[in-house]
Please model this.
Amino acid sequence: MNKKTVKELICDRYWEYRHYTEKNDSVAIFLKKDSLRAYFLIQFGQDGRILFPGAVPFKPNEYSMWDFDEEEQKIVILDKNGNENQRVDIPIEWINGIQRIFLTGEAKGDALVCEKSTNKRKSHPYFLGGTQVFITSRKFVTLDLIHDLSRLGFNIKISNHQVASYNFFSDTFEYIIQHPQLQKIIISNTGKLEVKLPQNHQLLISKDCGPSSIAYLTGNRAPILELLSSVLMENNQHLLNSEDNRAEEEIFQAVLQTQFSDRYELG
Model:
């Protein structure tokens, strides 16, 4: 395998840093500084840089550049001084198409994890609606809704899946990744024309959102992607645990309450 092939495998995707326990349960790792907190997500750039998408409190010095050793067939991770930090194998495919890169040395037991839905796709350079999108289920779509959203400068993304289902979240995540210009995202499960954005927090949730339902969710690109990624990862853990009987909407609520409790407002 050469470096060009490796780029196709790892570049332009989100890789989440996770720790694995002896029971193979995974735990998300956060980047924290003072009151700021963000998921440890990286992207392998085509130019050899390691990028940190979204707003992060700091960038770990150990992850600055990457290269590929064709002779040993190893991905080499370099620190900010250009010194070798990690020498790891190419990704291993796990359940549901999830890929994992297992780390070594002091980070042994940790892995970089990529959801199937973050696989590289061709981005569309021309996109009706610019930087804003309204995402809803097909059953709620009417011509009036499409026309009203168009007048407000919103593109509409129509999903064939039920809102809050795993397939809906996966499809939505992939769609946002495919369109890097999207900055304001609205997810609606009401069929109503609502265009409300958070004022004081990163996410806004409808007041009508019950203990296991989603009526309305909105926010900027980075926190929405972070939330969707967390829900997808939690759902995969749920599939591996035969004793976990939660419904898909309950999984969303659990992630929201445990990992984003101080990052959303009701509206």
In short: Residues 134 and 239 are 29 Å apart (CA to CA). The two ends are 51 Å apart (CA to CA). The mean pLDDT is 81. The first strand starts at residue 15 and ends at 20.
